[in-house]
Structures are given as structure tokens and as C-alpha cells.
């Protein structure tokens, strides 16, 4: 569905990804692990097509749509968006369709954010905000969900709900690529890409 082959990436001449390869097949969950600064977010952005590799290749099967949950989304707080609007925007490349309205409601209910739908994004707690952004990613009709530390800041119950939702996506044939610092979470994956610590 999506693969990276010997991908290299760096910022201002500083190498971050060195010949990283990963295969993301339909119905699979891939975890990207590694210490702070090892390049997890960078790899996810390369896989999602937001960053172009300096060398190596990213291949996406024809028609493969990627939904991205970035780690940082400060731009959303600058807009006067409500929770309901934020989820409906479905953020990345506009994959949201009207026909998915009932599944949107269901995802919001399950993530415990349905009652927050009229609140402004900037008024939310960290965990509430994260659940809205997860919903925004998961309502998209995508073949691959690329999620950067999706459950960071979530309590145990919300984390379990997110894992259930991801399991449902995978069983329905979608692929999930997530980064995580939580060994229990990365153990859910069928395959793990471990990035090494940056050179001191
Ligand atoms: N826009 C940028 N400009 C310059 N350097 C950057 C940029 N984004 C990331 N970096 C650097 O690239 C390296 C990898 O960053 P990245 O965010 O991919 O790591 P990470 O593994 O996701 O870290 P964390 O676990 O802290 O989220 C770090 O050294 C970081 O300082």
C-alpha cells in the first residue's frame, strides 16, 4: 500500500533519517519507535508525503489516500474553530464525505467529545484537544492512517478507545502507522521500525 525504501532526510545539512526502509501493507499496524529526536515525526511526514526524501523513494499504491495526525498543530488554536467544525474539516486533503456523518457522530461519541462539539478548540484541555484531532484523522476515508504519538496526553480509558478504533480500521483493511514511546502501544503493531538516537 505504502513503502519507503532507503529514505534519507535531514534539516539544514544535519542528517536525521539514514536509509530507512519500511513496508506498510493493507490491514497492518506499523509502529515507529526511538528516543526523542531520533526522527519519528520526520519519517511519518515523509511517509505522508508532507516532506520529500533527499534520497531514496516513497511509493504509494495508486489511489492510496493518507490521513495524517501531526504531533504539533498550533495553527488550529489560532482559528475560531469549534470542536464539531474541526472534526468535520477532516484536516488533510479533504477526504471527509457527507455520507460519513453517522460514523463521525459515532467516533465523537466513542472518544467522549460529542458533548464538546460547540466548544472552541483553544478552550480545551490537552487530552480533550488530542481526542478531537484523533477524531479528525479517523473520520477521513483513507487507506493509510499516519498518527504521530496519537495517545500522548490521553488517560487509560481514552487510550483503550483509540486502540479499539485503530483495530477496527486495520480489520477493515486500512493500514495504521503510529509513533509511540509506550512499549505496550508499540506491542500492538505487527511490525516495528526502531530509529536510533541521534549522534551526540
Ligand atoms: N523543522 C525542523 N528544522 C530543523 N530541525 C528539525 C526540524 N524538525 C525536526 N528537526 C530535528 O530533527 C531531529 C528529529 O526530529 P523529530 O521531530 O523527527 O524526532 P522525534 O523522534 O519525532 O522526536 P520526539 O520523540 O521528541 O517527538 C531532531 O534533532 C530535531 O531537532
Automatic annotation (TrEMBL):
InterPro entries tied to this protein: AAA+_ATPase, ABC_transporter-like_ATP-bd, ABC_transporter-like_CS, Metal_Ion_Import_ABC, P-loop_NTPase
Keywords for the protein's UniProt record, in alphabetical order: ATP-binding, Nucleotide-binding, Transport
Keyword ATP-binding: yes
MF terms (GO), sorted A to Z: ATP binding; ATP hydrolysis activity
All copies of domain ABC transporter, residue ranges: 2-199
Entry-linked PROSITE patterns: ABC_TRANSPORTER_1, ABC_TRANSPORTER_2
SMART domains reported in the protein's UniProt record: AAA (SM00382)
Family: Belongs to the ABC transporter superfamily.
Name of the protein in its database record: Zinc/manganese transport system ATP-binding protein
Organism: Actinoplanes lutulentus
